[in-house]
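yo

u said u wanted the structure for the complex thing, so here. seqs first:
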Amino acid sequence: MTDTATSGPRSVGAPSRTSASRTLLARVRDVRLQGWLFVLPALVAYGLFVLWPIVKTFKYSLYSWDGVAPAQWVGLDNYKTVFTDHDLVGALEHAFKLIIYFSGIPVVLGLIVASIMRRVATPRLGSAARTVLFLPQVVPLVAAGIAWSWVLSTTGVVNQALSALGLGGVTRAWLGDFGTALPAVGLIGAWVLLGLCTVLLLAGMSKIDPQLYEAAQLDGAGPVREFFSITLPSLRHEIGVCVTVTVIAALSAFDIVYISTRGGPGDASMVPGLLIYQLAFFNREVGLASALAVVLMLLVLACVLPIQWLTRRGDES
Amino acid sequence: MFERVESLTARRSASLPRRGRTLLGLAVVAIIAGVVAVTCAAATSRQAAPSFATACGSKPVTLEGYFETGFPDIIDLTKEFTRQHPTAKWHIRQDQFAVITQNAPLTLSGPNPPDLMRLPQVSGLIHDGLLKNLNGYYKQYGWNRFPASQLASLRAAPAGKPRGGGPLWAMGVNYSLTGVFYNKGLAAKIGMKSPPKTLAELDALLAKAKAAGITPIVQFNGGATGGLLFPLQQLMTVYGPPNPINEWIFNKPGANIDTASNLKAADHLQGWIKAGYFNTDANATDYATMMSKFMHGDGLLIFDGDWESGNFDKNMAGKVGFFLMPGLTAKAKHAAMSAPLSYGIAAKAPHADCAAFFLNWVATNPKARQINVAVGGSNPGGPPNLPIPTTRPNSVTAQTLAAGKVVASQNGAMDFIANATGAIYAQSWTPAVQKLFGGQTTPDDVLKTVQSDYEKQVKSGA
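structre next:
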């Protein structure tokens, strides 16, 4: 095709070049079309099950609707309620507090555990440790919630251990106490997410060039210096993924809270996800529930997008 | 019409001789009597309850049921119904009450609504036109023979509120009663020879148990289940009459839960909490855990309902007693939460007539009534002239049935304050009593907060 376009006579070459470019264009179009055809099923599913529900949720948020009777237009009133109702604002605060447990603990602890495993574990021990740490990800969250509610009950393992250590005065119903219910829920989340973070970070560490560590050791760097100068900067992407996933898990927490405390006692562990469910299905305030859901989605994006931006900014520099 | 008959008779009698007038008079009387007899007969036939064939048809029919898990009585009743009427089969789906509550509007408005369904709070469903008005069946089956109080909570205005009057929207399969169950063994240990007759005696009993190292009250109050409402509502009836509470539950205009007598009740409850009479982990205890603890002898009392009577008779025979909440004086009238286990028929149910026949059958058939008492441990309700099936003397079931008679005779039945609106239990009462238990709020705040939420929910129809 190129030969014809370049070596032919001028009089013939012009139309020949045109037809060649048309053919090229057609091919490009074909390739694009094929690409779109490949993407189409996923795109249709995404549109139907993600984008369309988001559009509908936003629409519902502008109405007062009980889910059955005709809806009434209320404009932005539901959004005003979200930002002024004490209970709703309290639930949003709890979600942000959960970030400490769902993101902070798993990422920090995951980094420490992964570093130790990389340095000291034999391949067989490392494999076993990875399996054990990843196991909570395999256990359904409902089962995890039930098991932890037993562990944290007044007669559970935690209180038995505390009593055995002579700390009987500290024992309590951890999930039924106003001061400890939210942290206890947070710790269940940390337990679930620790394995995921550890495995992700270990995978990231395996990609770091060992010569970097050798060079650092030759320069006299100790394990701590190695960690901060080599390991941590090299794991920027993995840490970004861990933080993104865990922040989303914290802000949209539902199953663990539903199973272990149902938002109680009082509203001590109430989170937006559970409140949306209660508003929609018990209070039958579908409009208000939708408004809270939209606000929650925007909050998640507001938290996650800067994390992604920070991670990518490092790449560009 | 009667005026016209009389005027014609008077005109004719004036122009006839005496004997003739007498004969004519007799003939007219006979005709009138005949007309009245025929009319009465026709009326009687209209009021006769439909037969199974009339209601369910002669062809095989499969009724769709959507029931609550953990209630074997309704399952046994459907089985017995099929045994007696083999052409009627059941296809039953069961869910937890919370799931039924959240699913109810969609299930009833969907393309395949159930014929018979365990109902949560009904106001919203009535408002949305999702339930069948049972007034027609009420007349057909003569449910006017039922005590009016049995059906009051199942009546509501077509707008869904207020409740307590207006058309009938649901029926009780049986009628539960709440009160206090006690562990006889632990009671003997602290010298309790008979149930307390006054609130002061109950207080003294609780103090004795506490001093003896026995947990005086085991109560659930964890998760989304505010179990402290049981003692709270019982205390409300100690300090005040049940009618204003019922009016509040039925959304009567101007009804208020924040009253002086209810504040005394909430104060008394707080006194029990502060005295350490409840299990320390009440805010983390669900219903199943409470039952497990009580049945393992971990507490003297529980505030609960007669749906557990059969369970206690089977698994703790002779070890459990029951008493109604005592009043301020020994002669005070008793009141208790006594709500129907309500079932309704979907507005678009394909076999509504057959489902209504089943509801009538449950209340009137001797075998069905026996199942209700033996399996459910509850009063089968129905016309008061029908006998209550016999139970083993001194069994818990016998005690709760006897207590039910006392409450009925003293007009002390009331609905549950958790049923005032669809959202009041999960959204208002439960957090409020959990905070009260945790020392996070005051009795006054509990009542004020709940009243404020109630007014919003009644207004929004939640």
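Chain B touches chain A at residues 101-102, 105-106, 109, 124, 127-128, 130, 221-224, 280-285, 422-423, 426-427, 430-432, 434-435, 437-438, 440-441, 457, 460-462 (CB under 8 Å). The longest strand of chain B covers residues 61-68.
cya
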